[in-house]
Amino acid sequence: MGLSVVTDARKDWWRSATIYQVYIRSFADGNGDGEGDITGLRGKLPYLRDLGIDAIWINPWYPSPLNDGGYDVADYRDIDPRFGDLTQATQLISEAHDLGLKVILDIVPNHSSWDHEWFKAALESAPGSPERARYIFRDGAGPNGDQPPNNWRSVFGGPAWERVTEPDGSPGQWYFHIFDVSQPDLDWNNPEVREEFLGVLRFWFDLGVDGFRIDVAHGMVKDMTKPDLPYDESGLLNSPSIADHPFFDRDGVHDIYRGWREIANAYDPPRLFVAEAWVEPPERLARYVRDDELHSAFNFDYLKSAWNADALRQTIEQSMEVLHAVGAPATWVLENHDVERVVTRYGREVTAAPRGHNRLVLGESDRALGRRRARAAALLMLTLPGGAYIYQGQELGLPEVLDLPEDALQDPVWERSGRTERGRDGCRVPLPWTTSGPSAGFGDNGSWLPQPAGWEELSVEAQQGDPESVLELYRSALRIRREEPAFESEALTWNQDIGADVLAFEREPGFMCVVNIGSESVKLPVHTEILLASSPLSEDGLLPADTAVWLRP
Question: Coiled-coil ranges per the record (predicted)?
């Protein structure tokens, strides 16, 4: 089934866009080597167009040893051969544009891979050299320099410092890494680093890329003069919990982004930047999306929120108020490549997102309950004013894979935590496309992470055309989102008369969303038409628990 082009020519298309996240290694395998690639993605572009999205965001596809899923970049201006090459990437961008889809890439400016030519040169050079000045090298503490310079810790566990062996074979300096030891942090006080990334932006913009999602946008600038931290500041989903943090959310990042915005504005149409910034409170996040910096930012407060009416309402109101004050749209997201899939999380007694990477501490999950809530959450997310993000497989209702064999785990969190936290591999299992085949249609020769039994039952082929499926719910919702004039506004009006456990609001002209998050059925407000429901209404027309409905008032 073909649909009309979904992306218009507006320069501010991103304010209300639906963006689909592609974790390329797990999306579709076009050459049969067990890993997703550009060829596989190109073959699925019509599927994405027909889903009804506006843009795709592709996780890192650069050359990388994949010690951290591609977020350890060895060359920012090339494609990893396992995924394809620059010619194929250029063809993908062109084909996506022909289908009305924008293309957003990941950029990883906080750190490089230790396989990057710059870091190799740093290891071959002496302390104090220009090569080492691109990174953060320091002498060690203690009489022989055999202790880390301070007690700062890696987000992935363990010290944030690694000692090197000097070219003459002697124990040497230490380098700083917020993440894995294979991801040395760049020194953004160095003008050479800043100029290099301006060149990287221009390189991809000139190839037709429409924007970038900025990894660890709240990092980059550090104050290395700060003393030891008073306690462990690790955990990817933990926002900095102390003021004036030495390496997160420092004011200097904003000068960097003002320069980046000048580059983006030099293109016609202007290019887009989206921040991954784990910062609190929301007023701190708003500083990243002022009109001379980045365009939008992921709403992690919303992603982490429990399935609770008060918590969700508060997050929605606060997000819109703070972001609109600086002229930026809100964004809404339920899943991504770093967090537990919402079907599994919402099936638990505790529905707020867990801290860190541990996936096994919150008990059993009721998959049927989780899927019912996830369906309702999808309609809520897609009707809120602003942009929305869908992580691949979310539209299929995929659960977290919690029982991957230990020898299959590849997330660095697993090893750096002493094999106590399984990490993020459970949300990165390759997608099921068909009801048969060696990897449920992902590719011809298996998949780099093993798919669980019954995965094919959740495949695109299994759900295609089934009006009760999660896939068809998303397709219907995205079609209505695209067609309804009410979705062009950036405002909503709450209706709090239905019940304490109900979220209900209107968007003008003529659109209402009602979400029952309570345990009892509720009566719907007066309406003229039911446009879409996440689950069937009761026989007497009541809205059951954990159900959302779109109405015409």
Answer: none
